[in-house]
């Protein structure tokens, strides 16, 4: 009889837990904003509800000591295995210890091909080579390029800046050995989405002074994260609750990625991690006044807050250029390769891309800019999944391919 009582108790606790998760999911999803102008809003709403359910379940499981939050969320970001592609030669290798996957067409080429190095998105904690398999295959086929997808190590198992260093290591190796793969070392392009765009910007900045290896020919940044000083830019306000990446979720992932205490989230959102002197120094580069007027509808300047010294000390990594490439000096920016920046209107990170575009142009770096009015953050994660994809997914990847084909 005691066994049945224990079983009933466990079932009751489990049922209560599930109900709490569902209630929290409904509440969070109710707050979410699905703009009618966005790609297929009903589909996006369904995806957002499912993702929120998994995220809340993961957070509660971590609180109860069952398993870490990132483990469950990785199942979503991991992607589904792709079917065999007879048109491509695909091989897994290691570049100086960093896992990579190479894609190239089986058709012979009369001359050396261009190379594309791809860094996947996923907040530095999620995703991998498989999550962007369809994107990389498409780029290789449509642009007739040798594509190298970099499987950099993930946080929290690998502490920041291990991710940046893996991307840099793989890039340097490929630049040095490009001809071994039938690639012209003077036609290598670096590309990435979201945090992969961060790594793209950082790798290009790190290599501007290197004279012992070929120069990167161009860079492609797809809705990149480029600064962690100001979370109150017009796009942060407009898309504060937009699926799939809200303003609050952005800062939560930043703190998780850096293995920091998430109780500092509100301080970062308010800007209390930035001293007045630093705000003054970087105001010339990170400032709502630098955003074109058409992107500032309904924008309201935030209430100024004082810096909390303890929070600033705990989050100093945010001010490193490898984390916030927008903070790089003009002496570095002016030497960067030609760029393609792709932004989405319904993306909390939209203004990061707009500000970097402005900085590059002011330093005479040629920029090709595509803005996807119906796009949202994370849309290319659905690329190649037939009816489960979005028109903006294909539009973004096609823009990237067309830019790449110009080199």
UniProtKB/TrEMBL annotation:
Superkingdom per UniProt: Eukaryota
Entry's transmembrane regions: 6-27
Picking any one GO molecular function of the record gives: carboxylic ester hydrolase activity
- Catalytic residues (UniProt): 194, 347, 377
Specify the Alpha/beta hydrolase fold-3 domain's residue ranges. 116-260, 319-379
UniProt keyword terms in alphabetical order: Hydrolase, Membrane, Transmembrane, Transmembrane helix
Write down what this protein is called. Alpha/beta hydrolase fold-3 domain-containing protein
* InterPro entries, sorted: AB_hydrolase_3, AB_hydrolase_fold, Arylacetamide_deacetylase, GDXG_lipolytic_enzyme
Can you quote a single GO CC term?
membrane
Family named by the database record: Belongs to the 'GDXG' lipolytic enzyme family.
């Amino acid at each position: 009889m005691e066994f049945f009582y224990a079983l009933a108790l466990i079932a009751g606790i489990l049922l209560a837990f599930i109900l709490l998760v569902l209630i929290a999911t409904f509440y969070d999803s109710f707050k979410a904003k699905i703009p009618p102008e966005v790609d297929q809003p009903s589909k996006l709403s369904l995806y957002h509800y499912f993702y929120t359910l998994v995220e809340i379940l993961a957070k509660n499981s971590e609180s109860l000591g069952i398993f870490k939050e990132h483990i469950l969320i990785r199942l979503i970001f991991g992607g589904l295995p792709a079917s065999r592609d007879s048109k491509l030669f695909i091989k897994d290798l290691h570049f100086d210890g960093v896992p990579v996957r190479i894609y190239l067409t089986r058709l012979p080429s009369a001359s050396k091909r261009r190379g594309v190095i791809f860094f996947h998105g996923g907040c530095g904690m999620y995703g991998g080579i498989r999550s962007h398999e369809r994107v990389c295959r498409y780029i290789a086929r449509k642009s007739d390029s040798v594509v190298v997808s970099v499987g950099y190590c993930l946080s929290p198992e690998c502490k920041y800046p291990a991710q940046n260093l893996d991307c840099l290591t793989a890039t340097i190796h490929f630049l040095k050995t490009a001809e071994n793969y039938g690639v012209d070392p003077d036609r290598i392009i670096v590309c990435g989405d979201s945090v992969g765009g961060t790594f793209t910007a950082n790798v290009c900045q790190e290599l501007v002074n290197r004279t012992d290896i070929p120069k990167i020919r161009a860079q492609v940044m797809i809705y990149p994260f480029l600064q962690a000083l100001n979370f109150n830019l017009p796009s942060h306000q407009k898309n504060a609750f937009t699926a799939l990446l809200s303003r609050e979720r952005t800062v939560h992932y930043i703190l998780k990625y850096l293995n920091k205490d998430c109780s500092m989230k509100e301080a970062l959102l308010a800007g209390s991690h930035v001293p007045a002197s630093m705000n003054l120094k970087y105001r010339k580069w990170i400032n709502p006044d630098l955003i074109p007027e058409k992107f500032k509808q309904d924008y309201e300047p935030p209430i100024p807050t004082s810096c909390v010294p303890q929070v600033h000390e705990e989050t100093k990594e945010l001010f490193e250029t490898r984390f916030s490439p927008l903070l790089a000096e003009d002496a570095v920016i002016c030497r960067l390769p030609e760029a393609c920046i792709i932004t989405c209107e319904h993306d909390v990170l939209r203004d990061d891309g707009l500000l970097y575009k402005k900085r590059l142009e002011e330093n005479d770096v040629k920029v090709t800019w595509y803005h996807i009015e119906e796009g949202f953050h994370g849309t290319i994660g659905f690329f190649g999944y037939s009816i489960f994809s979005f028109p903006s997914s294909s539009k973004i990847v096609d823009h990237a391919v067309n830019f790449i084909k110009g080199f």
